[in-house]
Amino acid sequence: MFQYARIPSILAGFDALSKFLWLVCIAILVFIFPPLLNLVLFGIILVSALILGRVGFKRVLSALAVLLTLALLFLIGGIFYGKGQPIFYVGPFPYTWEGLTVRGAAAARILNVMLSSMLFIWVTNPRDLVTGLVRLGLPYRLAFTIFVGLNYIPILTHEMGYINDAQKLRGLRKDKSVRGLLRLYRTYIVAILLRSLRKAQITAFALDSKGFGAHQERTYLNPFRWTAGGLIWLAVWVVIVFLSLYSTFVLHLWSGYYLAY
Amino acid sequence: MSPSDPCVVIDNLTFCYDGAASPTLKNLNLKVNRGELVLLCGPTGSGKTTLALSLNGLVPYTTGGDLTGSIEVCGLDPKSNPTPTMATKIGLVFQDPEGQLCTLFLEDEIAFGPENLLIAPEELINRVNELLDLIELRSMRLESVFELSGGQKQKVNIASVLAMQPELLVFDMPTANLDPVGSAEVFKVIRHLVTERDITCIVIENRLDDLVPLADRVVVLDMDGGIAFDGEPEDVFMNAEEIMGTLGVEIPQVIEVEIELRNRYKTGSKDKSISLTIEQEIKRMETLLENHQISVLLGQNGNEPDKAPGDEKPIVIVEDVHFSYRKGVEVLKGISFEMKKGELLAIVGNNGSGKTTMAKQLVGLLHPTRGRVEVCGLDVSKASISDIASKAAYVFQYPEHQFVAQGRAVYDEIAFNMRMAGFPDSAIKERVEKLIDLFQLSGKEQVSPFELSGGEMRTLSVACMLSTEPELLILDEPTYGQDRRRIKGLMQRLGELRQDGTSVIMISHDMRLVAEYATSVALFHQGKLLFFGDPHELFYKPDLLKLAALKEPPVCTMVDLLAARGIPIRRDIITVPELFNVIE
Predict the structure, then answer these.
(1) For the residues B523-529, what does the mean pLDDT come to?
(2) What is the rounded CA–CA span in Å between residue B425 and residue B415?
(3) Residue B100 and residue A206: Cβ atoms within 8 Å?
(4) What is the strand order of the sheet B503-507 is part of?
(5) What is the tens place of the pLDDT at every residue in B101-121?
(6) CB-CB: which of B96, B105, B405 is closest to A127?
(7) In degrees rounded to 5, what are phi and psi of residue B287?
(8) Cα of B557 to nearest chain A Cα, Å
(9) Domain extents for chain A?
């Protein structure tokens, strides 16, 4: 769910930096938009993922399942908001309109930031992000740290599979008591940590052996290039951000939302 | 540096890991000339990998430890040059094909090293294209490296190091994950690099049949941290009995035949060198036959196959099993076979043929999408995994995947399954002590499993799955990274278990092991079962072996060549003892 999908699409054809800066635009918008506009934004990102990103319904639905669960937890958290006019009670706790609005706004923001980040990961080759960040002036050693981190996702996915299998075969999954579950998760975490450390050592050996860090600079098989499509996409969103800022701070169409919640 | 200068000069090298009781390498002296292909072998734990890592400075700077003596590699001293600088001269290919991948996509992986060395983009493209052709993966250049098979990953690793155009290449067990044909291809590529590109290569290996005829020199390490033998292969293997007997290192089967001939019939005892290739050995045998120094017994059978003890009741029944992962590609296509109790069944096949997927069906980790699997009387689709696990144990390829009693000692690791199953302490103690004794782990009871040597980890991984006395033991590549002595020790333990009625299935790429120990063999290819039966039959089916990227043991090739020369020899001989059953 959190890996580059390598599907040819309009968004995949855009340069990584334009898409990365688009994420910055989304991060600004979610904080100045009122809840309703955040929901509209959510719809736009969703449609972008399906049409411009061609990431597929199945992938989007899996992501939505996780994101909406998270959003629901936020909404449930409204019980503890306390202030405002009660709609209903859960035991002694009142669920208020204000609680719903505040938590709903927070949930919408989280949804937008997470969905847009996922879309970015699905349609962006991590290699292009690294070369893009280096173009922005980030030292390549630092940029590659992010890259190597991304490399660990498939490696750890495989490792988790092995550990799951070993636990099943050795009877660890049999004990369903709280104590058993605690032992299961402790074992699981220790196993993952141990395996990650061993893998990290081998990766460190390989990086050094392949001359990583030998020079201050490095060359690239696929150096970063801005794309016209990416720049247009970015320009559209920058205009939206400016219009929204103008509407918020000059026209005061929805002033206060970014402060209140 | 002139071409006649040595590429590697090691003088009086001693290295001790932090906290280790004794040095891994001790007063070691070695000189490797430019343009040589050096085979470095030795028993497990003799310091082969440590020596390799010291050549580019990973030892001691990354691993820690105390190093004395001097090393010079292509004119550079790894003690005063950081590893990334050493990378301009020396490339290392490690054993673990996945862990050493630095990027996500195939073409990026090959370009990664030269990118670090500031090679211009135009030249990068040329190198990547050339190497993609060399490893025959050009059509997959944009694929994720994690989607490749183990063999393909290792080829990419070799290409990624070659792309840096080093003067010295060091390979640490580069074929540990490859099928026999894949291994032979890698060795040919290495020979090509030495001959055509004048790159010096040092190859650490345990399986020597294909590599020895290609090597210019053999260096054998001993367990004292030094060099036991160093010289041309013909000279070094004059000491084959000591290499095999005292050091426990595998020697090529051709040399085993030669040694046996010398010992039995005092033939060629005055020769100062030894045959390294099958062709040389066949000529020698022909001469002996012509001179009537030896003769082939007609009608004499080879060793009787190791028949399974006990009754003939199938312990495994596999009926028309099909299986697909989520992507929908069928990985198993209508597999059917039965395995008798007490048998040792070898599952063989090339990388990605479905061997491990089949084995996982037998313990309930995967369920057939169609068909039926019955193991020890349990239908695996209906029985719980813990019920199956109490009767059928699965030992993973990498022992550390098996260990779940994290942070505890060897004793706890072996006791773990019994504790989970609720056995009383007295029964656990009795059984664990028996297994510790059987698997020669005495004295290590309170040591962490992760502090054991690779060989000990392997034996522990088997021991901890035997605590609940399963009826069936399944081992995935049990000989991975092991020397011959440890393999023999493990197989002896398995033999004892079989005498007590335990059935064994092993997945292996080691055809000599299959020939020596398996009572039956299942050959998988592209998810289909191409052959199920006696290994004596399989190893004389060249078309099947070729299709599945397997190679018969060298002794079978020798028998074939003798038969082709008109010598009336039975074509069901697959081991050296069987060959000498028909030679007088």
Answers:
(1) 96
(2) 9
(3) yes
(4) B392-395, B472-476, B503-507, B344-349, B520-525, B528-533
(5) 888 899 999 999 999 999 999
(6) B105
(7) -60, -45
(8) 38
(9) 1-124+227-261, 137-224
Residue B58 in contact with partner chain A when CB distance is under 8 A: yes
Residue environment code for B235-274, b if the CB has 16+ CB neighbours within 10 A, otherwise e: ebbbbbeebbeebbbbbbbbbbbbbebbeeeebbeeeeeb
**B474-507 per-position pLDDT tens digit:** 999 888 778 888 888 889 989 988 998 899 999 9
- Taking the complete model, does pTM exceed 0.90, yes or no? no
Q: What is each CA distance from B475 to B46, B375, B399, in whole angstroms? A: 25, 15, 11
Please, what is the end-to-end C-alpha distance for chain A in angstroms?
Answer: 30
Chain A, 124 to 163: residues with Cβ < 8 Å from chain B are 125-127, 147-148, 150-151, 154-155, 158, 162-163
Q: Which of residues 427-466 of B touch A (CB under 8 A)?
A: 450, 464-465
Alpha-carbon distance of A227 to A250, in angstroms, equals: 33
Q: Which of A6, A215, A223 faces B118 most closely, judged by CB atoms?
A: A215
Chain A CB contacts of B404 under 8 Å are: 166-167, 170, 172, 187, 191
CA distances from B127 to B114, B116, B157, B162 (A): 9, 14, 14, 9
Residue of A nearest to B415 (CA): A170
* Amino acid symbol at B327: K
B438 pLDDT higher than 80 = yes
A56 CA: distance to closest CA in chain B (Å):
15
Q: Name the region of B45 (left: φ>0; alpha: ψ -120 to 50; beta: rest).
A: left
Kindly give, in sequence order, each residue whose CB lies less than 8 Å from that of residue B113, ignoring residues fewer than 6 positions away.
A210, A211, B87, B91, B160, B161, B163, B164
Residue B120 to residue A223: CA distance in whole angstroms: 11
Omega of the bond prior to B535 within 30 degrees of 0, cis?
Answer: no
Q: Which of residues 106-125 of B touch A (CB under 8 A)?
A: 107-108, 111-121, 124-125
d(C-alpha B197, C-alpha B208), whole Å? 23
User: Can you tell me the distance from the alpha carbon of A160 to that of B426, in angstroms, rounded to the nearest whole number?
Assistant: 34
